Amino acid sequence: MLLTNNYMNNAKFTFYYLLSLVALLFTAIGTGIILFQIINSVIADAGTFNGYTDEAMRFGIAALLVAAPLYFFTARAINDNLVKGLLSKDGPVRRWLTYLILFAASVTVLGWVIGTINMFLSGDLTIKFALKLLTVLVIAGVIFGFYLYDIRRGLPKAKDLGVRLFLAGGLLLVIGVFVASWFFVDSPKEARAKRLDNTTINELLSLNSSINEYYSTKKVLPTTLAEVLKSGGYISEDYLKDDNDQAYEYKIIDDRKYELCANFLADSKLDKNSDQYKYSRPYPEQNWNHGIGRTCFELEVPVISEMPVIKTIQ
Fold it and tell me: DUF5671 domain: which residues (predicted)?
């Protein structure tokens, strides 16, 4: 019976350690990503593409929200079983899996440091590099400091000061980072509005291409968007309305100039994402910035060896 209980305990503690390993990695990575994005937001650098992104920040928040409570729960459960004597301090399960956690953390930190140095060599600002490297070293120091202390400590106590400091300090750090992240990331409502606006811009781009194609074939602008639809091209009937089922407006200005108008839910000029409203098309002076509500864009059909110029009409 004793042998059976030992096997059951070994399986249970192996599960605890492996679960804490996965939760620890997600917690550390989530914390690092949030701090990296805060640095990117506070220290803007137009000369690189390593700017702030809401996508990365949202992943970091999700990682902390799920993984951090799980990690602190498993870490406390492991420590409680050590204190009660159910988990052997010098047993193979504890030693092997503790060093496995240290190994996995080492690989993660190594990759992080290499990536941070690579960004610096690619042109990242020195202050950003220094702060990001400091972030990695602090996170690594906390993890290695605790687990090296844990594996070397003497007889586990119910009120071990080192363990209590780590759990309390780590919890405060995670809570602080989690709270700070909400001052930078968009709310779910704002994120949805920007995503819908991005879809609207993409549809306007398709309309723009279809109108230009229509002109190149017929040498005249279409009188309505329905004519563009009938002629084929890049669009379907869905492209004639936005996500709120409101029709896009089209108006001819002169022989080659026209306007496309749409309603938007967010102000692109206030967007923190450096590339959120930059669209990769081979045209200079392209401007699809917009405010909240109705915005019209003045476009011009290009001729050979000439590029169209787009102006935002406020």
Answer: 15-145
